[in-house]
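Exercise 7 asks you to align residues with tokens for two separate proteins.
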Amino acid sequence: MPVAIITGASKGLGRALAEALAARGWDLVLDARTVEVLQETAAGLRAYGTRVTAVPGDVTDAWHRSELVAAGRRLGGVDLLVSNASALGAEPLVRLDELPLQGLRRALEVNVIAALALVQEALPLLRASAAGTVITVSSDAGSEAYETWGGYGASKAALDHLAAVLGEEEPGLRVWAVDPGDMGTDLYAAAVPDDDDARPAPASVVPAFLRLLDERPASGRYGAPSLLEGRR
């Protein structure tokens, strides 16, 4: 069975994508910081009959990243690496003139540096896979200017560029930066707690990710709404 590592997998988009892959027979290595929630998620996914390894920890920890890749190796390799774990930089979001620099450093550490470090750790296994794939979860805040989203958006813009360069440097892999669009997640609620507007559930955008895995288009940046509409 193919093997995927998914960070930020205990809830939201990470959990929804993990469930869709488990239903397709994928073996999984799941990361999140909250032990109890991650273990509950893993137990639920094992009902699909696949192997699920839960590795609680922080992606900014080098030892933890090594454990994630080692868990993938024990399952037979790494065919897919999904960098979904994210930090906002401030909760709730604030304007740049109020953004704590330590918060910005945290966003860059989680969203950019840890994502690249995990790719570096997993590259030998990804290169050995017949369908090695890296997915970085992007955001429209990385390409559009929204008030209060400056720190988070800057980190996602940096991640997009790393993904684009990785796609050029690793032609044997598929590297997709995927903007899922609006979703109702805990991350969004923490970012803008006063926004009560209904937003799509994370599971509603998972078919866009599955389309990429099925069709394997060229490396690049893709928007889930366009993929769901049949466009690229």
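Second protein for Exercise 7:
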Amino acid sequence: MTIRVMLVDDQALLRTGFRMVLAAQPDMEVVAEAGDGVQALEVLRGTQVDVILMDVRMPHLDGVETTRRICEGGQKEGAPKVLILTTFDLDEYAFSALKAGASGFMLKDVPPAELLGAIRAVRSGDAVVAPSTTRRLLDRFTPMLPAASAESERPELARLTDREREVLLLVAQGLSNGEIAARLVLSEATVKTHVGRILTKLGLRDRVQAVVLAYETGLVRAGGTAGA
């Protein structure tokens, strides 16, 4: 099945470069482009898109607010996934975009093969493109969040089984499904099932939002260690 991609960046030259890379793939098609968030939202009203490559720093409406508006429908069937493209690693704008609902982020100078793999991963629902990088981003900017409040403020956490909570903690520490499976002596398919149930119970779009929630509630602290 062809992955329908939208490019959102205020630099036309960068969009051209990304379009050339994607056009060479038999399973991808660039179906839309936009130079800022306002234009992107307008285009999306009439275009079916699977994955959006989103810049963060743009005029009129930046990528963070654009991502929030796109993702505010939660896990609505058929909603596009947003992959943030940043110029600098550990960009505070990227952190805000993850909180807004983006499924992951990458640097703009990423090798083509990694970008293509990221698009396919996001489309398939794997979401976290680089768990360790996402964790480093959260470790850097979690101190900027309001103090973690008691878990009682998120009563849905109580719906998790002991095993699901264990899996959530490992997801938040940046482990992939395969690494979690090895740590807990489970099959990778079983881990994937647990992750799916966690997302459903907590009403989250994907793994990235699960990681953000774990940090915000104090389940894990900066550095990826389990909270008290």
